[in-house]
């Protein structure tokens, strides 16, 4: 998975919290793997979350961001 001009912060793998969250620009997910992520999109405008298999784009989901984008993950519940 990729995000146009954005990034991911991986916080958990397979339901287990990481000691330190890991920032990544591309997220490779194998079958049966699970990740908890925080998405940092571009500041404003239209952008896409994209999924590729064997180099071919399979899914493209559009999102729109308006105004201020918060920095960092939300507080834990």
Task: Walk me through what this model shows.
It is a single chain. With 77 residues, the chain is mostly beta strands. 0% of the residues lie in helices and 56% in strands. The strands form two sheets. A three-stranded antiparallel beta sheet has the order 1-5-6, with no helix packed on it. Strands 3-2-4 form a three-stranded antiparallel beta sheet, with no helix packed on it. The chain is flat.
Structural class: mainly beta
Largest sheet: 3 strands, antiparallel
The arrangement of helices and strands along the chain is: EEEEEE
% residues in beta strands = over 45%
Strand order of the largest sheet: 1-5-6
Q: Helix fraction?
A: under 10%
Q: First CA to last CA: what distance?
A: 27 Å
Please report the number of helical segments.
Answer: 0
Radius of gyration: 13 Å
List the uncertain runs.
Answer: none
- Principal-axis shape equals flat
Could you tell me the number of beta strands?
Answer: 6
Mean pLDDT across the residues is 81
Task: Provide a quick synopsis of the model.
The protein has no helices and 6 strands. It is mainly β.
């Amino acid at each position: 998975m990729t995000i146009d001009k954005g990034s991911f912060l991986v916080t958990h793998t397979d339901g287990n919290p990481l000691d330190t969250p890991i920032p990544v620009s591309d997220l490779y997910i194998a079958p049966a793997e699970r990740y908890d992520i925080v998405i940092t999109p571009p500041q404003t405008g239209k952008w896409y979350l994209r999924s590729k298999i064997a180099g071919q784009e399979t899914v493209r989901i559009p999102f729109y961001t308006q105004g201020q984008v918060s920095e960092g993950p939300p507080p834990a519940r």
